[in-house]
Amino acid sequence: MDINKLVRKNVQKLTPYQSARRIGGNGDVWLNANEFPVAPHFELKEQSLNRYPEPQPEKVINRYAQYVGVTPEQVIVSRGADEAIELLMRAFCEPTQDSILYCPPTYGMYQVSAETLGIETKAVPTTADWQLDLQGIKQNLDKVKLIYVCSPNNPTGNLINPDDIKMLLDIAKDRALVIIDEAYIEFSPESSVVSWLANYPHLVILRTLSKAFALAGLRCGFTIANKAVIDALQKVIAPYPLATPVADIATQALSKDGINTMKLHVINLNKQKEKFTNQLSQLPIVEKVYPSRSNYLCVKFQDNKEVFNTLWNKGIILRDQSKVIGQQNMIRITIGTQAECEAVISALKTIK
C-alpha cells in the first residue's frame, strides 16, 4: 500500500521547516537557534500528574497579563508562539479561499503553517533597509485575513518602524488582523505595541518564554489581543495545551523574582552583544555587523561558506541565512556566553 497516496496533496509538496535542531550539527557551542545561553533552574511543585491540567492555567494567565499590563481575558497561552501562529489561521482563514501576508526576510513558520493548512500566502518583501513596503502591502490585501510582522525581526534583528506599524493598522482596518510577533521584545521592551490594543481592535501580539526567559525547552507562548480575538482562538485550541509541569515552571518564571532575574539576564546579554559586535567589526573577514535589538547578530562576511564550515568543524554551530535574507554571505549568530563568543572570535581569526 502506498501511504503517500493518502497524504493531502499540498502536504505531499511540503518541505519540513528547517529548524536549528532539524539541521543538526555536532559541537558544544550552539549559536544557531537564538536560545538563551544558560539554563535556569526550577523545581517542580505540582505533583497532580494523574489529572488533566487546566485548559488555560489561571496562575500563568494572570501573571502574564499582569506582566504585560493587560487583563486576563486578553491573553491565551499555547505550546510556544508557533502554535499561536497556526491557531490564528485556523480561527480566521478559510482554506483555499483566504490568504495570509508576510514580509520576508522573516520567520519561516508563517509560510510553513499556512501551506500546511492549505491557506494561500502572499509575500511582500521588505525594503532595502528591512522595513515594511506599505504600498506593496496595500496592493496585495485582496483576500488577506492575517498580516504577520516580526519586530524585532528574525533573522535581521531590526525593529520595524512604529509609525509604519500604525500605518499598516490603518490600511488593514476592517479587512485583516495585524499580528506583531514580539518573540524578542524583552531585549527592547520599550518598543512593544501592547499598549496600542485599546485603539486597534484588530491588533494581535505574539510573545514567548523561549528567548529572554531562557525557557525554549518549555514550549510556552502567549497571544495578547482584544477579547473578541481571544474568544475565537479558544474555539480552536487543543483542550489541554500546557502540560502541568510546563504551567508549573511558567508560573514560577512569571513571579516577581522570576521577572527580575529575566531582566538582569537581558541587561547582561545586551552588554555581551555590544562587546561581541565590536570584536566582530574589527575582523577583516567581516564586511558588516548589522544593528540588532534582539539576542542575535546578523553578520555579513566575505565568504559565508568558509566561515560556516570552519566553525562547524570546530564544534561552533551558526545559522547561514544567505538564502532567507536574499543576500550572499549572511550568517546569524546567537549571543552566547562570554566564553562562547570568545571561541567564535578565536575561530574566525584563523580564517585568512
Structure description:
The protein is α/β, with parallel strands linked by helices. 36% of the residues lie in helices and 16% in strands. It contains 13 helices and 13 strands. The strands form 3 sheets. Strands 2-8-7-6-5-3-4 form a 7-stranded mixed beta sheet, with helices on both faces. Strands 9-10-13-12 form a 4-stranded antiparallel beta sheet. Helix 5 links the parallel strand 3 (99-102) and strand 4 (120-123). The longest helix is centred in the C-terminal third of the chain and has 26 residues, at 256-281. The mean pLDDT is 95.
Q: What can be said about this structure in brief?
A:
The longest helix has 26 residues, at 256-281. This protein is α/β, with parallel strands linked by helices and 352 residues long. The protein is globular, with a radius of gyration of 20 Å.
For the biggest β-sheet, the strand order reads 2-8-7-6-5-3-4
Main beta sheet:
7 strands, mixed
- Unreliable residue runs: none
Strand proportion, as a percent range, falls in 15-25%
Q: What sort of overall outline do the alpha carbons produce when their principal axes are compared?
A: globular
Q: Specify the number of helices.
A: 13
| Radius of gyration over C-alpha positions, nearest whole angstrom | 20 Å
- Give the averaged pLDDT, no decimals: 95
Q: How many DSSP-defined strands?
A: 13
Distance between the termini: 55 Å
Helix content: 25-40%
Derived structural class: alpha/beta
Order of helices and strands: HHEHEHEHEHEHEEEHHHEEHEEHEH
